[in-house]
Design brief:
Length: 333
Amino acid sequence: SRLTAYIGVNSKIKPFIEQAVLTLFKASPAAGAPPVSVPGTHFNSLSERLQPNPNQILPLKISVGGTVIAPPPDADDAAEVKLQVGDQIALQVGPILDGNNNPVADGTPVEFELVYESEGSALVAEPASTRNGYAQRDILIDKSGVVRVSAISKVGDNAQLVARSDDYSFNVADNPALVTVVTEATATAMAEQASESGVENNGNAEQPAGAEAGNTPAPGSTPEGEAASTMPTRRVHLQTFFMALLTMLGVQSFLLIVLARTQHRVQLLRNMLWAIIMGLAAYIVYFGYIVFGINIMPGASWIQAETYPWGTVIIVFIAMLIPLLWLQLRHEQ
C-alpha cells in the first residue's frame, strides 16, 4: 500500500489532542481562524483574509443634527426625508468585518459616495479610516437635488472587489434662509438711497475741512489731524526685544574681555549681574511707555520718535553702564 498522508498531532494537554483528532476527521466543527497562512486551504493567504469581506453589506448610518435619518428606525415609518442646502450630514459605517469575521484593522480606508442623480455629479469627500471597525465622516450639502449616498471599502488593491453598503436617496431642497429675494420696489429704494448718499458725499467734499464754526487753520499752522498723522507709530515687537538681548550680550562680552584679568571673579560676576538687571529694567520701563503710555523715563518720547528702532539699543546700553560706573567709583573709594 502507498502512504497518502501522515498527520501528527502533539501536545502535552490531552483535551487538545482529542479536539485536534475530532476536527481532523470532521467530527467537530473548527472555530476561529489560524493566525498564519495555511496553503492548500481557504486560509491560503493571511493578508487576503484580513481585508474587508466583499460578501458583506456595510451597515451605513446617516444622521442630521443628531437625528438618524437612515436607515429608518421603523420600517413602517420609512417616510421620505427632505434635506436642505447647508445641512451637515454625519455618515458612519460599521462594523466592517474581514474574511475571518473580525473587525478590520485600524486605518482601513473607506470611501463615501454622494452622487446627484439628475446631474451625475458627485460631492467630493475625503476617504475616512477605520477605528475599531468603524469609520465616519461629516459632509456639508452645498446644492439641491436628489442625492444618493453609499459607502464602499476596497479589498486590497483590487478596484473591482469591494464591500458596499445599501444606497439611500434624499431630496435636497433650497434653504430659504440662504436665499435673498430682491423685489422691484426694494431695488428702487436701494438705488434712491445710494443716489442720496452720493449727493451728500459730494457736498461734503466741496466744503474744506475746518471751514465750519471758524475752524479754518491759520497760515503756517498744522492741523491737528496732520500733526497726529506725522507722529511716529509706537511699536515694540520681537525685533526690538532681540535688539535688547543682543545689546546685553555685547556689553557682557566686552566686560569679560576687558575686566577678566583686572577684577576678581566674584566682583566681575556681581558687575555683570547688575548690568543685566539694569538693562532688563530699562527695557521693561521703555516697553511700558511704548505700549501703555507710562512715561517715567526722561527723554523716552524723543528717543522713540527720533531713533526708532535703535532707541532700544540706546536705552539698554546706557542703563547697563550706570551700575558699572557706580560700582567702579565705589571700588576706588
